[in-house]
Write the C-alpha cells for this entry.
Amino acid sequence: MRFVKLALAALAAALGMAAVSAPAFAADGDISRSYGVWRNPRNTVHLEIKDCGPSTCGVVVWASAKAEADARKSGTDTLVGKQLLRDFEAQRDGSLKGRVWVPTLKVTLVGSADIVDTRTMRAKGCVIGNFLCKSQLWTRIDGPSVLASRAAP
C-alpha cells in the first residue's frame, strides 16, 4: 500500500510539473493541428508540441519561478529548452503515446493524450503500464504552429 501511495504522489507531482503526454492527432489524422503551445492546468509550464524528426516532442518554452526552483532542487539547471516529451507516435485510436521525462523526480513515464477540441487536450500519465494513471486537461494558448519542415515548398 505504501508503494501505491508513493507512486500516486510521484504521478501527481509529474502531472503538475510537466505534461505527461503530447497532443494527439486531430480526427482527420493531421498532426499539425495539434502543434502549438499548451499550458498545464496550474499554468506553471508551457510546452511547444512540434515535429522532432521521425516523432513528435514537447519542449518547455516557459516555466514559472516555482517550477524552475523545483527543477533546480532536483539538479536540473533550467526547464526552458528541455525536451520533456519524447518519441511520441500516433496510435490506431487517434492518440499519441510516448515517453515523458520528469526532471523533479528524475524518472521517465509512459504518457498518452487525446485532443478533446481545438483548445483542450486530455493528458494521461501512468507510472506502470496502464496502471496507476492520472489525467488532466491542458489548454492551447496559441494557434497551431506548423513547422517549416511540414510546410509545403
